[in-house]
Amino acid sequence: MRKEKFTFLIPLLAILFSIAFNACNSKEDCTPFNVSAIDQFTAVEKEGYVPFYIHRGIDALAVNSEMYENQYALAAYTFEKKKGEYEIKITTLLEVDGESTYKLMINDTQVAQIVNDKTEVDFTEKVYSFGKFNLNQGDVIGIAFNNISNEEIVEYNGEYAFARGRWKSLIFEKVCK
Q: Coil, helix or strand for 172?
Protein backbone atom coordinates (compact mmCIF):
# COMPACT_ATOMS: atom_id res chain seq x y z
CA MET A 1 0.00 0.00 0.00
CA ARG A 2 2.83 2.44 0.76
CA LYS A 3 4.38 1.76 -2.61
CA GLU A 4 1.10 2.68 -4.33
CA LYS A 5 0.90 6.00 -2.46
CA PHE A 6 4.49 6.81 -3.33
CA THR A 7 3.91 5.88 -6.97
CA PHE A 8 0.87 8.14 -7.03
CA LEU A 9 2.72 11.10 -5.45
CA ILE A 10 5.56 11.27 -7.96
CA PRO A 11 3.38 12.04 -11.01
CA LEU A 12 1.29 14.47 -8.94
CA LEU A 13 4.41 16.34 -7.81
CA ALA A 14 5.69 16.41 -11.38
CA ILE A 15 2.43 18.01 -12.55
CA LEU A 16 2.50 20.61 -9.76
CA PHE A 17 6.13 21.56 -10.47
CA SER A 18 5.35 21.79 -14.18
CA ILE A 19 2.47 24.19 -13.53
CA ALA A 20 4.57 26.31 -11.16
CA PHE A 21 7.51 26.62 -13.54
CA ASN A 22 5.43 27.21 -16.65
CA ALA A 23 4.16 30.55 -15.30
CA CYS A 24 7.20 31.85 -17.12
CA ASN A 25 9.12 29.81 -19.64
CA SER A 26 12.34 29.90 -17.63
CA LYS A 27 13.97 31.64 -14.72
CA GLU A 28 15.75 33.94 -17.18
CA ASP A 29 12.40 35.13 -18.56
CA CYS A 30 11.21 36.21 -15.11
CA THR A 31 14.41 37.74 -13.81
CA PRO A 32 14.36 41.55 -13.87
CA PHE A 33 17.14 43.05 -15.96
CA ASN A 34 18.78 46.48 -16.05
CA VAL A 35 19.59 48.44 -19.18
CA SER A 36 22.37 50.95 -18.52
CA ALA A 37 21.71 54.48 -19.74
CA ILE A 38 25.37 55.15 -20.55
CA ASP A 39 26.18 51.75 -22.08
CA GLN A 40 23.04 50.63 -23.89
CA PHE A 41 21.14 53.78 -24.86
CA THR A 42 22.05 55.86 -27.89
CA ALA A 43 21.39 59.48 -28.75
CA VAL A 44 18.41 60.27 -30.95
CA GLU A 45 18.82 63.26 -33.23
CA LYS A 46 15.33 64.58 -33.65
CA GLU A 47 13.85 68.05 -33.96
CA GLY A 48 12.89 69.42 -30.56
CA TYR A 49 15.58 67.52 -28.66
CA VAL A 50 19.08 68.56 -27.65
CA PRO A 51 22.18 66.37 -27.20
CA PHE A 52 22.88 64.76 -23.84
CA TYR A 53 26.20 64.01 -22.22
CA ILE A 54 27.51 61.24 -19.98
CA HIS A 55 28.15 62.39 -16.43
CA ARG A 56 31.24 60.31 -15.65
CA GLY A 57 31.77 59.31 -12.05
CA ILE A 58 28.06 58.80 -11.43
CA ASP A 59 27.38 56.91 -14.68
CA ALA A 60 24.32 58.87 -15.72
CA LEU A 61 23.01 60.65 -18.78
CA ALA A 62 22.36 64.38 -18.37
CA VAL A 63 21.42 67.55 -20.29
CA ASN A 64 23.97 70.37 -20.30
CA SER A 65 22.12 73.32 -18.80
CA GLU A 66 24.90 75.76 -19.63
CA MET A 67 24.22 75.20 -23.33
CA TYR A 68 20.52 74.31 -23.25
CA GLU A 69 18.11 75.67 -20.64
CA ASN A 70 14.73 73.98 -20.11
CA GLN A 71 15.31 71.47 -22.92
CA TYR A 72 14.73 67.75 -23.42
CA ALA A 73 17.24 65.20 -24.68
CA LEU A 74 16.21 61.82 -26.08
CA ALA A 75 17.96 58.47 -25.72
CA ALA A 76 16.79 55.13 -27.19
CA TYR A 77 17.30 51.40 -26.69
CA THR A 78 16.10 48.53 -28.89
CA PHE A 79 14.32 45.92 -26.78
CA GLU A 80 16.05 42.55 -27.19
CA LYS A 81 14.03 40.17 -24.99
CA LYS A 82 11.03 38.01 -25.85
CA LYS A 83 7.67 39.66 -26.26
CA GLY A 84 5.51 39.93 -23.18
CA GLU A 85 4.17 42.25 -20.55
CA TYR A 86 6.88 44.10 -18.60
CA GLU A 87 6.85 46.60 -15.79
CA ILE A 88 9.30 49.34 -16.74
CA LYS A 89 11.11 51.25 -14.01
CA ILE A 90 13.66 54.05 -14.21
CA THR A 91 16.52 54.83 -11.85
CA THR A 92 16.93 58.61 -11.63
CA LEU A 93 19.09 60.87 -9.53
CA LEU A 94 17.27 63.44 -7.41
CA GLU A 95 18.77 66.92 -7.65
CA VAL A 96 18.44 69.84 -5.24
CA ASP A 97 18.16 72.45 -7.97
CA GLY A 98 15.16 71.07 -9.89
CA GLU A 99 12.70 68.25 -10.42
CA SER A 100 13.28 66.82 -13.89
CA THR A 101 10.65 65.05 -15.99
CA TYR A 102 11.21 61.65 -17.65
CA LYS A 103 8.98 60.57 -20.54
CA LEU A 104 8.77 56.93 -21.60
CA MET A 105 8.37 56.44 -25.34
CA ILE A 106 7.62 53.15 -27.07
CA ASN A 107 8.14 53.27 -30.84
CA ASP A 108 8.02 57.11 -30.83
CA THR A 109 4.78 57.29 -28.83
CA GLN A 110 4.83 58.73 -25.32
CA VAL A 111 3.13 56.21 -23.01
CA ALA A 112 4.03 57.53 -19.52
CA GLN A 113 5.95 60.15 -17.60
CA ILE A 114 7.21 60.76 -14.08
CA VAL A 115 8.65 63.79 -12.31
CA ASN A 116 11.51 63.54 -9.82
CA ASP A 117 10.67 64.22 -6.19
CA LYS A 118 12.01 67.28 -4.43
CA THR A 119 15.12 66.52 -2.37
CA GLU A 120 17.61 68.08 -0.01
CA VAL A 121 20.33 65.54 -0.86
CA ASP A 122 21.89 65.77 -4.34
CA PHE A 123 22.24 62.64 -6.48
CA THR A 124 20.07 60.38 -4.32
CA GLU A 125 19.03 57.40 -6.46
CA LYS A 126 15.28 56.95 -6.85
CA VAL A 127 13.44 54.18 -8.71
CA TYR A 128 10.05 55.00 -10.24
CA SER A 129 7.66 52.72 -12.10
CA PHE A 130 6.25 53.88 -15.42
CA GLY A 131 3.76 51.00 -15.32
CA LYS A 132 3.23 47.76 -17.25
CA PHE A 133 3.46 47.56 -21.03
CA ASN A 134 3.30 44.89 -23.71
CA LEU A 135 6.62 44.83 -25.52
CA ASN A 136 7.86 43.03 -28.61
CA GLN A 137 11.41 42.16 -29.50
CA GLY A 138 12.68 45.08 -31.61
CA ASP A 139 10.52 47.78 -29.99
CA VAL A 140 12.38 51.05 -29.56
CA ILE A 141 12.24 52.28 -25.97
CA GLY A 142 12.97 55.99 -25.60
CA ILE A 143 13.54 58.19 -22.59
CA ALA A 144 13.10 61.94 -22.99
CA PHE A 145 14.57 63.82 -20.03
CA ASN A 146 14.96 67.50 -19.26
CA ASN A 147 16.97 70.01 -17.33
CA ILE A 148 14.97 72.42 -15.19
CA SER A 149 15.42 74.88 -12.37
CA ASN A 150 13.27 75.12 -9.28
CA GLU A 151 14.75 78.60 -8.79
CA GLU A 152 15.87 77.78 -5.25
CA ILE A 153 19.65 77.43 -5.68
CA VAL A 154 21.64 80.47 -6.80
CA GLU A 155 25.00 79.83 -8.46
CA TYR A 156 28.22 81.84 -8.17
CA ASN A 157 27.20 84.06 -11.11
CA GLY A 158 23.86 85.01 -9.54
CA GLU A 159 21.80 82.79 -11.87
CA TYR A 160 19.66 79.88 -10.77
CA ALA A 161 21.12 76.38 -10.87
CA PHE A 162 19.51 73.68 -13.02
CA ALA A 163 18.90 70.00 -12.43
CA ARG A 164 20.22 68.16 -15.46
CA GLY A 165 17.75 65.30 -15.69
CA ARG A 166 20.31 62.71 -14.62
CA TRP A 167 19.26 59.07 -14.86
CA LYS A 168 21.14 55.77 -14.74
CA SER A 169 19.08 52.85 -16.03
CA LEU A 170 15.81 51.22 -16.93
CA ILE A 171 14.67 48.07 -15.17
CA PHE A 172 12.44 45.59 -17.01
CA GLU A 173 10.45 43.12 -14.88
CA LYS A 174 8.46 40.57 -16.84
CA VAL A 175 4.95 40.12 -15.51
CA CYS A 176 4.76 36.40 -14.76
CA LYS A 177 1.34 34.95 -14.14
A: strand
